[in-house]
Amino acid sequence: MSANRDYSVTFEAACTPQEAFAAINNVRGWWSQAVEGDTDRLGAVFNYHYQDVHRATFRITEFVPGKKVAWHVVDNYFNFVKDKTEWTGTDIVFEIVPLGDATEVRFTHIGLVPDYECYDVCANAWGSYITGSLPNLLTTGQGQPNQIEEVVDEAREMSSRNYTTSFTVDQSPEEVFAAVNNVRGWWSEEVEGSTDEPGAVFTFQVQGIHCSTQKIIEWEPGKKVVWQVVDSQLDFIADKEEWTGTHIAFEIARREGRTELRFIHAGLVPALECYGECTNAWAHYINDSLFNLITTGRGKPERKEAAETVA
């Protein structure tokens, strides 16, 4: 890791700087056979994509034969993190240095830092491509472009990670169950419909921001409640129906003399545009409002006179 925390990795190969330079610019040979566009001249623009996981566009901004290549990321899309454009504006640099009979290649992704949500997945992927596939292309003539399935699987796992949070209280499972079903006491005073019987349908609304209709599809007193979101209208994102078809579950269990409540919004995953706003809102409603309703008898729901919180 470089001093400024940009991702960086180095390898040596028994080749000339010119051979290393040629291999680096053969991007289809070590990164992806699906790369579109020229990758071997100054000013060229090319596109990379891998299934539904990652798409990016690069411009070659430095091209010094036998010495250096640099790409600028002009556009980027990830499906597995909240900020889908995390790479946009970063720079990817290959520096080539002769070392006697060998050549050192230093790879730096300027701007890819540990603060990024994608960092672990991207660092693992770059490590495999740069210290595995690219050196193999140099030394054997055969790289392994887009063969790193475990990295793709990790990205897919991230993209399907449901929002989950939990807390533990001294109250009984029955008391926690009752509080969960008192939806007006912790989510919104303006909820319409019954919220405390199996099969019931109710609506939550924050005017001009969010309206959703939930149906209670599982009901186990003292143990579990599950809602299905049968309709949703989120006015602050492009796909206003992102919640529709998702499930909201409350799982209650006795653990070491206390009661644990586990909340899962199945289908609310990082790939959704609403993920950041909605998880922040759920954190307030569940970990603050519902927790307080259970432990003090007073939650912090949306009030009739001022409904301003998203989700």
* Tally of individual helices: 7
Radius of gyration, in angstroms, nearest whole number: 26 Å
CATH architecture of the largest domain: 2-Layer Sandwich
Low-confidence stretches: 306-311
- Topology pattern, helix = H, strand = E: EHHEEEEEHHEHHEEEEEH
Helix content: 25-40%
Count of domains: 2
Identify the overall geometry.
elongated
CATH-defined topology of the largest domain: Alpha-D-Glucose-1,6-Bisphosphate, Chain A, domain 4
CATH class of the largest domain reads Alpha Beta
Q: Would you identify the CATH H-level superfamily of the largest domain?
A: START domain
Count the E strands: 12
Distance between the termini: 39 Å
Your description of this structure?
- The chain folds into 2 domains: 7-158, START domain (Alpha-D-Glucose-1,6-Bisphosphate, Chain A, domain 4), CATH 3.30.530.20; 160-296, 2-Layer Sandwich (Alpha-D-Glucose-1,6-Bisphosphate, Chain A, domain 4).
- Helix content is 26%, strand content 34%.
- It has helices at 17-25, 27-30, 119-140, 149-159, 173-181, 183-186, 275-296; strands spanning 7-13, 45-50, 54-64, 68-78, 91-99, 102-110, 163-169, 201-206, 210-220, 224-234, 247-255, 258-266.
- The strands form 2 sheets. Strands 1-6-5-4-3-2 form a 6-stranded antiparallel sheet.
- Strand 8 and strand 9 (210-220) form a beta hairpin.
- Helix 3 runs antiparallel to helix 4.
- It is elongated and about 75 Å long.
